[in-house]
Here is the input.
Amino acid sequence: ISLFARYSISPSSSQVGFSQVNRSDFRQQSVTGGATAVLGSSASNDLRFNWTSASVRSEWIGTSAGGAAVLDLSSWAPWATPTFSAFSIGGLGTVATGDGGHSSQNQMNVVDTFAVKQGSHYLRFGVDYQQLRPRREGPISSLTLGFAALSDFLSGRPGWLNYSESRSVATRIQTGSLFAQDTWMLAPPLTMTYGVRWEIAPAPVSQRGHPLYSGSNSTAPTHTHSGVPIWSARSTNLVPRVSIAYRLTSDGRSVLRAAVGAFLDTTYAASIDELNGEPFNSLQLTPPYFIAPVNSGPRVLYGFDGNLKLPRSTEWNVTWQHGWGNWAVTSLSYVGAQGRNLLRREASLRPTTEIAELELVTSHGTSSYGGLQAEYRQRLTRGFQGLVSYSWSHSIDTGSWDSSVFLVRAGITAANDRASSNFDARHVFTAALAYDVKLSRGPRFLASGWGLSGVLHARTGFPVDLLAADTLKGFALANVVRPDLISGVQVWIQDPNAPGGRRLNRAAFSLPPSNLQGSLGRNAIRGFGMSQLDIAAQKTLSIQDRATLEIRAEALNILNHPNFADPERYLVSPLFGQPTSMLNLMLGSGTPYSGLSPALQMGAARVVQLRVKLRF
Here is the structure.
């Protein structure tokens, strides 16, 4: 029997921003332990345990940078005393100040696996249990003042005002799995692995005595009281998987692999919406003059579809791999996937004043993926090694993010939003090369230890989903309103003043009447592609027998090739149709919630850095 245990604690903080600063303080503790027991010559049991506690407290701090005034909305709503305030203009973004909230989560995970070898079979059986306890400390109240477009703000036309109150809440989420798997050596050239997994995922329940809403888009929401599950759990969540590996040649240089399997998302990302949903976050929309009390406006209710199901995906792949001597490997693969019962947030407009809008988490999402992948790898030969890969693929779905909210009503369903995924990149090419340089002359410590390397990345553009504005009555909707495409008008036009020398033509799009969906489909426009070459040179010096010194110079985007972010997609924006940043800021701004540091993210301007590493 062997045992292990470890404990870690990692407090940290980050501060990002200029005109407004977002400060976040994080704290995480973790205890992990395990025991492995060898039971005779052919069996073993492996037990793992983990407990983790994580918390974050954040705030938005207004600054006077550039002569700006710190945001203060108290004069717009004298009846409200918000702890968080925001000001928004459609197409230009939002500025905020105040308390961002304090939330935490405890997690416990226990996994036990028993393995035994019987002849040509290698069997594994096990159990996996996880419990999450997210909670939010409150209450927090927020006030957002917004205008649909810059022209509305400049002309003095009315905007909208949202007020919300978030109470203190906690919930418990549990998932469990039983699994069995067998790896069977059928014959010397053929190996098959097959198994089944039974997933158990009961619906979460409130831990602090507050009612929750559940229902459907066609019925009024109903209350679910504390301790009662939000939706009905199912006990038939069996998912099988099988794969084979077959040697096509006796020397093993050519191999065929194939696999198919089903998977369930037991984490239910939306289940922690108890922390954000009604009545813990009761959103009020006031009339457009900002003077009415909070209880005069319609309310937005948040809830869960009573027929919510576990998101399910089926994945398959076939790969042929061939080795050329001892120096190169070629592989050709087809990869496919299909998603059903995926989480999709849907909002419906109500004609009553009591419940004007309802947002439900549903299982109406679908997705599919198909991709052809080719790769050539050369092992280290005469100082050279390299890789070239290419993929052609197409990802399609009804919504690419769990957080997006889609409007549904007559003539607008999930099927209307089925199109290329937000992250769909049709063609992707990568090439990498490394060369160990040996000089024929000079002292030994200078003649050896040199290395050169380079990586080339290239892909086609992501889709861009054009909308009239980023909100409707202050409510962020991912599909309202798409414009009409005017026939015969060029979509892209040349513009020497625009980044990249071209921009979308505003005249090619018009807004449909009465907030109806236009003829332009979701993600029908493609943005800018990307290409970047990174190179590096290094020298390794030996220091006696036990240490080495590595000096490495790296240049990211050595050609300083401009890679632009997707063009501004909101028609109300004065910058519509042209990118407002480089690609690196679009992919991630280096905040605690997304991406690398902008300087090191893909698509940045040229960055040169020097690294020195001592090994001993």
Observations:
- The two ends are 33 Å apart (CA to CA).
- The first helix runs from residue 150 to 155.
